Amino acid sequence: MRVEGVVQGVGLRPFVYGLATSLGLAGLVGNDADGVFAEVEGSAGAVARFLARLEREAPPLARIDRVSTVSMGITGAAGFVIAASQTGGQRRTLVSPDSATCADCLRELADPADRRHRYPFINCTNCGPRFTIVRDVPYDRPFTTMATFPMCALCAAEYHDPADRRFHAQPVCCPACGPRARLVDATGAELPGADPIEAAGGVLRFGGVLAVKGLGGYHLLVDAGNAAAAAELRARKYREDKPFAVMVPDLAAARTLCVVDAAAERLLLGARRPIVLLPRLPEADRFIAPAVAPGNRQLGLMLPYTPLHHLLATAAAGPVVATSGNISDEPIAFRDADALQRLAGIADAFLVHDRAIHIRTDDSVVRVSQGRESVIRRSRGYAPEPIRLARPLPRPVLGCGAELKNTFCLAKDRHAFVSHHIGDLENAETLRSFTEGIAHFRRLFDVEPQVVAHDLHPDYLSSKYAADLAGVDLVGVQHHHAHVASCLADNGWNGPVIGVAFDGTGYGTDGTIWGGEFLIADAADFQRAGLLAPVPMPGGAAAIRQPWRMTAAHLTASVADLPGGLAVRDRNAAQWDAVVTMAVRGVNAPLTSSAGRLFDAVAALLGVRDLINYEGQAAIELEQLADVGEQGSYRAAITERPAAAVAGGFAAATELPRAKAQLIVGGSDLVHAAADDLAAGVEPSVIAARFHNGLAAATVAVCARLRDQTGLGVAALSGGVFQNLLLTDRVVTRLQQDGFRVLRHSQVPCNDGGISLGQVAVAGARDRVSQS
Ligand SMILES: [Zn+2]
Ligand SMILES: [Zn+2]
To answer: Which residues of 412-423 are buried (b: 16+ CB within 10 A; e: fewer)?
Structure first.
């Protein structure tokens, strides 16, 4: 028997051992580079029961993709044994993601009689660090960062006892033989206190900033109820407004802050332990300082995911901010010396330990959307579990991802290994994470890419990385096609579909900036069948940082008859006319069809903000402003022009249906309607809602007209703008009422974190066509 999937380091061998023994079967079980293998010998009935129960009762962290069996000769063996691990051969086994502390370990952690009482590194076959400590495969202790901790006699006995729940748990350890926690200052000198975790709790209770070494990197913690501490953390981190996540000790504490429904409860308590974005209760204001998540209807909550965090959350005696250990947009610190140095000016104390983190992995972020998990940042607890592809790839593929929120994806056969969150590829440190991450995944999963897919933007560092590779076939994939293909792969759907890709920025095949796209698409190719009417971005990138420039660009056409006293113009009077001129003349004003920029224009118009300090901020705040009860709507004109040929740049013929007319949505109509309402004294919250409703109505109208042209009844929604719950809810509801089947993201983000999977899907589909 051979078992493939996430089968190593998850307690499968002891489970097989126990099952076979209980059924009176003889034989063996072992790990090799392909996964788990076993030979069982006994009565036909017992063997059948064994196979049935294997899949049904497998341990919680195991993910069995395939069980295959062959018949062998009878050996007459007596008894069942666990065979030694074998190395070599092609590697097909999967490394498990890191997993939150299990209930059995938590019981021992709290038990004064247990030898691991309050030991911050307790773990077992069902829980503990995995991906972040793995240096190489097979998953065995010598190939992890636990290799430097020789087991004591008691731990070794548990490790070797097939009846023990720590049998072959690679990170097994105890206070006598395992890692130790210490509380130190920025020079590495130990701070006083008998118990470092109690002392760290004291730092938080007294308003200090605490750096904590977690599973995948360092966090910065402060008491979430302490306004001065939260403000101080913002100032020291140079993070002005972006919301902080909050760690609470347990579910009961989560319920005092947020609405937690059954789906959210499963995510909060599950083994992956992400940050879960939840609707905030008014009472949360009593426990959470305003600076934690300013002006946000949601709060990101996380329950402790390691024994260290469990102990610390109790010692802190209240909700704590838990944010990445970095300054501004740098990657999260994960190496000890580097962390002390980089965080020296931020943290008052450091809770550290001596188990190395091999791979930097941020917290994952998810939310529940219409009863379903929707991943916004896919990292710790999820990576490196593969996304299963609907069809096998002809050749191994690397998708290099986008520039912002980068992930890469290495794929072969039906497994797409989407990396942990790498970050914004804008500095050397992040680029190093990217290149080292690819090298690590290649070794770990034995994928030697022959096809490399990249964004069309020539200046993206990920595109340049691809261009520098030798001996591979390069495939350029348009950004929004990658979004739609990612959504198809996420849903195991082959297409064709009407793809709606709304985001901030993506390089178009015509050299302009796209971002409000309706694509008739399958994985191999696409036709740009609709778009938001292109408008100039006065000042280029400056228009991204200063949303009011987009307001000016949209209102230029009628600059003479602008409603008097328009506040956005008054606030930016010094530059307004120059920016309008730029837009009208098209000087330093590249054209964009971006949906994100349309949100920016309305946000600045309504006084939400004229300047942003993190990506998407104005649009996010516009959504928060909107009155969700408002049903009024603005109308955007939809015009037609003859459609261009299939524009995906893929020469081979595909069966993609053709739209004969290209539909252009007049986004400016929405901005003008909003300006008129504003001049008439309508509340900004109502205007914000009418804008959302108007864009949703136009989106559904375009989809319906494209269905008329092509006969396609499936719509796929992708792009970062669909993180907007209000817009998504309106679009999905109306599409479904109109008879559409709607595909949305769940396993990978709709934002650029999902691009690498889409690139792999496109490159794989083209490879399949070329080879057939
Ligand atoms: Zn456990
Ligand atoms: Zn020990």
So the answer is: beebbbbbbbbb
Separation of CA 176 and ligand 2 centre (Å):
5
Q: Which helix (H) or strand (E) holds 591?
A: strand 591-592
CA dist 760 and 768 (Å) reads 12
What is the number of the ligand closest to the CA of 104? 1
Q: Report which bound ligand comes closest to the CA of 174.
A: 2
Residue written as token pair 């293909």: 485
C-alpha distances in angstroms, 160 versus 31, 108, 689? 15, 20, 62
Taking the alpha carbons of 482, 487, 491, 496 in that order, is the dihedral positive or negative?
negative
Give the closest residue to 391 by CA, choosing from 55, 767, 36, 748.
Answer: 767
3-state helix/strand/coil string of 651-677: CCCCCCCCCCEEEEECHHHHHHHHHHH
Pairing between β-strand 80-82 and β-strand 26-32 as defined by DSSP bridges: parallel
Q: What is the pTM of this model?
A: 0.92
Distance CA 296, CA 243 (A): 8
- Tell me: cis bond preceding 684? Omega within 30 of 0 counts: no
Give tens-digit pLDDT for 292-327: 998 889 999 999 999 999 999 999 989 999 999 988
**Amino acid code (one letter) for 713:** G
Query: What values do phi and psi take at 279, rounded to 5?
Result: -65, 130
DSSP structure class, residue 717: E
Single out the residue of 82, 83, 217, 93 nearest to residue 143, CA to CA. 93
Tell me how far apart the alpha carbons of residues 657 and 709 are, in angstroms, rounded to a whole number.
Answer: 9
Q: Name the closest ligand to CA 271.
A: 1
DSSP 8-state class, residue 753: G
Contact 667, 535 (CB under 8 A): yes
* CA nearest neighbour of 98 among 313, 274, 302: 274
Cα 102 to ligand 1 centre (Å): 4
Contact (CB, 8 A) for 283 and 256: yes
Q: State in Å: Cα 127 to ligand 1 middle.
A: 4
Tell me the angle at which helices 595-605 and 617-625 cross, rounded to the nearest 10 degrees. 60
**pLDDT category of residue 646 using cuts at 50, 70 and 90:** very low
Neighbours of ion ligand 2 (CB under 5 A): 152, 155, 174, 176-177
Query: 415 has which bridge partners?
Result: 388, 412
The rounded mean pLDDT for the chain is 93
Tell whether omega for the bond before 384 is within 30 degrees of 0, i.e. cis.
Answer: yes
